[in-house]
Amino acid sequence: MTDNANIDTYRRRFLGGTATALAGLSVAPGVFLHEVAQARPADEAVTSEVRWGMLIDTNKCANGCNDCVSACNEEHGLTGHGRPETDAQWIRKVDLRDKQTGHTQSLPLLCQHCEHPPCVDVCPTGASFKRADGIVLVDKHICIGCRYCMMACPYKARSFIHEDLQDQLPHAPRGKGTVESCTFCVHRVDNDRTPACVEACTAENHNAMVFGDINDPDSDISKQLRQHSSRQIRADLNLNTGVRYRGI
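The structure assignment produced for this chain is given below.
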């Protein structure tokens, strides 16, 4: 039997034998998670006809602006503990500098929602998974905190929760000892709304972020991708990311 077959067999046994039990347990003593946010209403399944994506224009992304980060933190109840190295960050601003010219630019970095996500490939329990519409998520009820996904992610887009949590939001289940990352605000998307970061960027009239269905030729994001050149970060990895950038 091949290594991949062994891994698949392990996943099936683990999920079949323990996932149901784990869903009813607390992640940490006294801390229970809310139910995982549903993909869509029960009578409306997610399909691969849609693929959600984001286009970020770094030429419009201002240095020192953190509106997208603040909006994400507020939307999902993320609070800092004065430790940037370990605090949860679903989206963060990264400054790039051209060593030859000295030109600097700022860009938001988040889960890239890959078509072929490495985090999903290495997860031993199936907690990391990709929806049919391209959104990559983590099921906190079966995440065992091994952090393999964090090591596999080339974008350092995942965070590990070290602290006990209180006042969780129903649409953003979190728990000590689990891994988390950007969800494209799936609870908003499933209700025909825009992710919080994009909404905040638009509200400030920066308009550096566009979100939509890449598979829909008439969507704003598809039109812009056709009209202007864009790039994937680490395109050499052939992950076919759902997040694209202009100006880098």
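Interim note for the steering committee: The two ends are 44 Å apart (CA to CA). The chain is about 25% helix and 15% strand.
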